[in-house]
Amino acid sequence: MDLDLIFVAGLLVGAFAIPSLVSAFADRRLPVQAVVMFIVAGVAIAYTIQEDAARYTVDNTDDVVVEVLGRYIN
To answer: Are 13 and 41 a contacting pair, CB within 8 Å?
Structure first.
């Protein structure tokens, strides 16, 4: 699997974990699903940064996301 795709998938899972966390707190239940999603996102992002730290910086994040979207949409 492509490292860029793993990075973007980790960002996407992390973004979807936020509404799950808010929903769990609003319903006064444990945010188990949100925590698992944050762990999966963190592992995916940490793995890609460990493999190529120079490519995955805060400045390059938007370039990587657009590149992956362009690659798989086109």
So the answer is: yes
